[in-house]
Design brief:
Radius of gyration: 19 Å
Order of helices and strands: EHHEHEEEHEEHEEHEEHEHEHEH
Helix content: 25-40%
Number of domains: 2
Number of helices: 10
CATH superfamily of the largest domain: HAD superfamily/HAD-like
CATH topology of the largest domain: Rossmann fold
Distance between the termini: 8 Å
Length: 278
């Protein structure tokens, strides 16, 4: 494989490039520098918003682009420039909000990119410990959704939290995508490792794969020269786009049947996968 030419490598952050304590191993950092020395673009593709990404990836960590919020935005590090964003329009946001409230669900609604570190929230009548844990972490950037007046804003995404019931998720996903053309529903495992399902609702064009494709198209990088590595269901579009695609050992079993296998995030998965091509 060391004869393979790479022009771009895209990696998920949490559970992939980062260790469980959110630190970066020396091996992964060295691999990043080596990619840069060889002129290979280094891209983050993460579900984190831009602010949260920059909390763990400071200027000393040499990534070239950040595809954040699962592809709702693309940020160029060299010029500190937001070069792409895609939000849900105001009308669609209000329709989905009314639908989720009618179902008595617990959810957050994130403000438009690039301010999507802030959000509105709605509590259903049933207490959800997972929702409350997430709320406690974001409460200083959150405000309640008003039931008395309509929203006058676009939004980046919805985050709906409910117990781990895959059948319920799939049924609700199908219903939402049928009722609201123009959106996509993504399943994400809880980063709090509590067994809950997180349902994310985006504009239909938003995905990590499309975010990386935007970078490739902008720089005229052919698909055949791309590599990706991830760890969860929200990396599916990324790994389906990149030519050489890896799922880490700590990823879902069903995804391990679809992609090349890498070590776990605790065992320098990024560095070991990249070294096969250098």
């Amino acid at each position: 494989m060391n004869n393979t030419i790479l022009k771009l490598v895209a990696t998920d952050l949490d559970g992939t490039f980062l260790k469980n304590d959110k630190s970066i191993s020396k091996e992964n950092l060295d691999a990043l520098h080596l990619l840069g020395e060889k002129g290979i673009l280094r891209v983050i593709a993460t579900g984190r918003n831009l602010r949260k990404t920059l909390e763990v990836i400071d200027e000393s960590i040499p990534f070239d682009y950040i595809v954040f919020s699962s592809g709702a935005g693309v940020y160029e590090r060299k010029n500190n420039n937001l070069i792409f964003h895609q939000n849900l329009n105001q009308h669609l946001v209000q329709q989905i909000t009314d639908f989720l409230i009618a179902l008595d669900l617990n959810f957050h609604l994130f403000k438009p990119v690039p301010e999507n570190h802030s959000c509105w929230y709605h509590r259903g009548s049933l207490t959800c410990p997972e929702f409350e844990s997430y709320f406690d972490f974001h409460k200083y950037h959150s405000e309640p959704l008003s039931l008395d007046k309509k929203l006058d804003s676009e939004a980046c995404q919805f985050l709906v939290v409910f117990p781990n019931n895959l059948e319920r998720f799939l049924n609700l996903k199908q219903e939402i995508e049928q009722l609201f053309p123009g959106v996509k529903v993504v399943r994400t495992s809880s980063p709090l490792e509590t067994g809950y399902i997180w349902m994310e609702i985006f504009h239909e064009s938003v995905s990590k794969g499309n975010g990386v494709k935007f970078v490739c198209d902008s720089l005229q990088i052919e698909h055949e020269y791309t590599m990706g590595i991830g760890n969860d269901f929200n990396d599916l579009d990324l790994l389906e786009f990149t030519n050489y695609s890896y799922i880490v050992e700590n990823g879902p079993p069903e995804m391990k049947e679809m992609f090349l296998l890498a070590a776990s995030n605790e065992e320098n998965a990024f560095a070991l996968a990249v070294q096969k091509y250098l």
